[in-house]
Design brief:
Helix content is 28%, strand content 37%. The chain is an alpha+beta fold and 109 residues long. A hairpin with a 2-residue loop joins strand 3 and strand 4 (56-61). The radius of gyration is 16 Å and the shape is globular.
Length: 109
């Protein structure tokens, strides 16, 4: 089962330090070596929002006023269960500290 794990920008997000870099590097290396981690990355704060209503599609360039809703990074993992994905999410949150992450199952592909 594949899960997309995203991290949102929050008011409590602090600047990374050497400890954070070292712990994240070890975590990513462990997940990569075990074959669980399929992809990971950070996302730029600016983006493009597309909305549709009937035949009309509106395109708006960001960054957006609700920056706290922006996704800052992601990891795509392949695990045996939702519970395993949640446990990886817990481990990630313990490393990075306060904030919010969302875990969603990826269907297909």
């Amino acid at each position: 089962m594949r899960y997309l794990m995203t991290t949102r920008v929050t008011d409590t997000t602090s600047a990374p330090d050497e400890r954070l870099f070292a712990e994240m590097a070890a975590f990513v290396e462990e997940l990569t070596a075990s074959g669980v981690l399929l992809a990971t990355g950070g996302l730029a704060p600016e983006g493009v929002r597309l909305t549709s209503s009937g035949d009309e599609i509106t395109v708006i360039d960001g960054p957006f006023t609700e920056a706290k809703e922006a996704v800052a990074g992601f990891a795509l993992v392949e695990v045996r269960s939702k519970e395993e994905a949640v446990e990886l999410g817990r481990r990630f949150r313990r490393i990075v500290g306060d904030g919010e992450s969302v875990i969603q199952q990826v269907f297909g592909g």
